[in-house]
């Protein structure tokens, strides 16, 4: 490949393909360079270290989750309905990934374990989307919480079974949709009534 | 050791010590027999297979969690206060185990992965304890839920971050007690108000 045609995006495509073929333990920057028919020095001009490339791969993967969710957070209309749809979409996106390509999902989960900073930024982004929906629900008098940011973090954590990769093996359980619905009902009731002095 | 003095309890003590020393991958029934100075045939008279011994070890370990919690479930008094204390105690018990003996905790978590039936029975037992507290809260008019069993399962799942071993690495996070308190506030508000038609 002509070096000047090499964009970060093409390197990330190649890195994903290499990860798909070899897995995280065996994949190297040299494999990515070989796949693109460039020298590994060329890769390093775009990503100064293997860790930088790994983080960029993780970041792009996580954006594929956060971008469609951001669209829901920015919509108008009932906050309750949007928050429900937001969590359903989050679970659907994760579940599709694990069911369609279980090995790639495992690889990306392993990458995420190493790219802690990227994952923390991703979670902060998701919680801020939830906070935006909760805040609009407070404005529309659907929700009665004093601190939307705090409530958003609590909701996100209470739904953890339905989005955290550590629970991926539970997502093929036939009861999972019922479980999701029941936890959701409990949580939305909590948001509607707000904090109680108990 | 005199074979007739060999109780299942002593075998389980020995098995736990062997697991502590060698870990799950290396520990064998022969190691347990050697530790007790009996033949491995003697062990098999009490536990017909390695899987049976493994399940009994897992069961006893999980009873150390469920037994003190059962006491809280059976107490009188405010359901809200007891339910809060029940989940605090669950988190405290798990956290102590992981902080005091991280390797043994990892070993037991690995055993639990294999002893699925034992773990399922344990979870069913814990959910039924939560259901008993929720039911008493419905009687005392503290909670307004139509099906305490369904609500109990939802509450247990919404609190999963604070008791499932997959989240053990998060339990040393300095924010974990605040997170627990915020998720709890959301959930208890949901139980107090009951299911909403939303």
Keywords:
198 residues; Arc Repressor Mutant, subunit A; Tetracycline Repressor, domain 2; 0% strand; elongated; homodimer
Describe this structure in words.
Chains A, B: It holds the Pfam family TetR_C_27. Chains A, B: InterPro entries: DNA-bd_HTH_TetR-type_CS, Homeodomain-like_sf, HTH-type_TetR-like_transc_reg, HTH_TetR, Tet_transcr_reg_TetR-rel_C_sf, TetR_C_27. Two copies of one chain form a homodimer. Chain A is mainly α and 198 residues long. Chain A has two domains: 1-48, Arc Repressor Mutant, subunit A; 56-193, Tetracycline Repressor, domain 2 (Orthogonal Bundle). Chain A is 74% helix and 0% strand. In chain A, helix 2 (29-36) packs across helix 3 (40-46). The longest helix of chain A has 25 residues, at 50-74. The first copy, chain A, is elongated and about 60 Å long. Chain A starts with 7 loop residues before the first helix and ends in a 5-residue tail after the last helix.
Largest sheet of chain A: none
Alpha-carbon distance between the termini of chain A? 66 Å
Q: Could you tell me which chain pair has the largest interface and how many residues each side has?
A: A-B, 30 and 30 residues
Main structural class of chain A:
mainly alpha
* CATH-assigned fold name of the largest domain in chain A: Tetracycline Repressor, domain 2
> In which range does the helix fraction of chain A lie?
over 70%
Large-scale geometry of chain A: elongated
Query: How much β-strand is present in the residues of chain A?
Result: under 5%
Radius of gyration of chain A: 20 Å
Average pLDDT rating of chain A: 93
Could you name the ranges of chain A where pLDDT drops below 50 across 5 or more consecutive residues? none
Which CATH architecture of the largest domain in chain A would you pick?
Answer: Orthogonal Bundle
GO molecular function, one term (chains A, B): transcription cis-regulatory region binding
DNA-binding region (chains A, B): 28-47
Organism (chains A, B): Nostoc commune NIES-4072
InterPro entries (chains A, B): DNA-bd_HTH_TetR-type_CS (IPR023772), Homeodomain-like_sf (IPR009057), HTH-type_TetR-like_transc_reg (IPR050109), HTH_TetR (IPR001647), Tet_transcr_reg_TetR-rel_C_sf (IPR036271), TetR_C_27 (IPR041478)
């Amino acid at each position: 490949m002509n070096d000047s045609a090499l964009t970060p995006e093409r390197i990330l495509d190649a890195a994903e393909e290499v990860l798909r073929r070899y897995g995280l333990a065996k994949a190297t920057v040299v494999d990515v360079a070989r796949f693109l028919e460039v020298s590994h020095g060329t890769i390093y001009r775009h990503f100064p270290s293997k860790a930088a490339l790994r983080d960029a791969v993780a970041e792009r993967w996580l954006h594929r989750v956060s971008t469609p969710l951001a669209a829901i957070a920015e919509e108008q209309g009932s906050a309750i309905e949007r928050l429900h749809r937001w969590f359903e979409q989050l679970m659907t996106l994760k579940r599709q990934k694990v069911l369609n390509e279980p090995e790639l999902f495992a690889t990306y989960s392993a990458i995420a374990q190493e790219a802690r900073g990227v994952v923390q930024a991703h979670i902060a982004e998701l919680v801020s989307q939830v906070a935006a929906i909760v805040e609009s629900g407070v404005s529309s008098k659907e929700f009665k919480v004093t601190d939307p940011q705090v409530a958003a973090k609590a909701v996100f954590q209470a739904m953890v079974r339905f989005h955290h990769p550590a629970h991926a093996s539970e997502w093929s359980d036939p009861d999972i949709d019922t479980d999701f619905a029941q936890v959701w009902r409990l949580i939305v009731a909590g948001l509607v009534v707000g904090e109680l002095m108990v």
